[in-house]
Amino acid sequence: MDDGLNDICLRDTSGWSFAALPATSARDKIMSAASHLFCNHGFAATGIDSILSRAGTAKATLYNHFRSKEDLISAVLEAEGETWRSWFFGRLAEIDGPAQTRLLAVFDVLEEWFSDPGFYGCPFINAVAEFDTGNDAVRRAADLHKEYLLTWLKAQAMEMKIPDVTETARSLAVLVDGAIVAAQHSRDPSFARTARRLAECHLASVHGKTGDSRDGQR
Amino acid sequence: MDDGLNDICLRDTSGWSFAALPATSARDKIMSAASHLFCNHGFAATGIDSILSRAGTAKATLYNHFRSKEDLISAVLEAEGETWRSWFFGRLAEIDGPAQTRLLAVFDVLEEWFSDPGFYGCPFINAVAEFDTGNDAVRRAADLHKEYLLTWLKAQAMEMKIPDVTETARSLAVLVDGAIVAAQHSRDPSFARTARRLAECHLASVHGKTGDSRDGQR
DNA sequence: ATAAATCAAGACAGATTGGTCTTCTTCTTG
DNA sequence: CAAGAAGAAGACCAATCTGTCTTGATTTAT
């Protein structure tokens, strides 16, 4: 409700996962434990009791902060998404250079994500895969998350003066999703580079100029 | 054990889902019901009782044919994968023309799949997303499934005399995964065409020739 | 016809689920 | 110090979970 003070010392962490954030309040400890278990063992397969045991809190405390398990899942997805986007777009903001360089850097940041030993795929992809048919809440959360990405991609494409920015954003989104799934299944982070090459190919074909072959770097 | 007679009149169905196949034996009815429920509502979320109720069989019958729920999940994944591949590669075999045409037709067949109202994504992607960390059986099943696809893609790339067939197969696999996930989330089958354009772009760049713009067709 | 196998129906067991409630302790705030 | 909020520990409940077992009907094979 009125926990608006949390964002003060929360924003400068460098992790992509909410579960890795330092948790002080009981609410954060629950969220952190739930996030870790949900993302690593599945939402339905994770029981309330294991969350409590990992968080070291009491059952009543959980139900004081969250109405139900479903409510907790929503909160975890939201927090996980915000933490990830903050990390992801933060990394991209560090890139200096033209929009094309920043667009292609998306896949370098992805590779960094994939290389983390704790990488478990995208929580939203996993959640939609698990609940799927007819679960509106989860689907809307995933939609929102992807909307953030699409908007960012579109903004970069516009800066490049690409004719059809929507098509380019859709293309790059497909590449991002594909790289995530391929890396998750194979545990091979280099699928990010495969996706990057496809992105270079696409940008070169819609932009005319040859696509930033990242000479020397890395 | 000795149910080797089933494949006789099973192979000429035109559906991509095992759950839609006509089921006569009790075993098939259970498999069909389980497949439908697992894929639409999740593996962990589907109880044995709802499978039995949908199959119209008794509990003892299920445990006569399968050692456990886990065993049933494995069997469903295997059957679902085989049915899908039989449908998918069957469709592609109908395509006449050079290997490049066949490779690009992959995305037309995908769009057909995505357009089915009962489309729920790839069972293997969903299963890995749900079980994820440390579930070897599921992961190996998904690996095998993807291996079939990669081998097929590689064969077509070799026929095209593409220099690095492995890289091309990996690239197309990323596009397939990305299209599946994007279509599943958005319920928009046209992501198959987006992926197809990226594939054309890639093939054109590694093959020299301009990439089969499918003039007139569709 | 008789023996064997298959199956439906469902009772049953033991564990676990999500969720509520009570009791006692600890901490914070006026 | 006193009042009140927050949390820990855990009993408790009804429902559901996977899995076993029994019984009786139906079918198949000898």
From TrEMBL, chains A, B:
Keyword Iron-sulfur: no
Molecular function terms, GO-annotated: DNA binding
Sorted UniProt keywords: DNA-binding, Transcription, Transcription regulation
Coiled coil ranges: none
Record keyword Lyase present: no
Domain HTH tetR-type per the UniProt entry, residue ranges: 24-84
Residue range(s) of DNA binding per entry: 47-66
Cross-referenced InterPro entries: Homeodomain-like_sf (IPR009057), HTH_TetR (IPR001647), Tet_transcr_reg_TetR-rel_C_sf (IPR036271), TetR_C (IPR011075)
Name recorded for this polypeptide: HTH-type transcriptional regulator QacR
Source organism (scientific name): Thalassovita gelatinovora
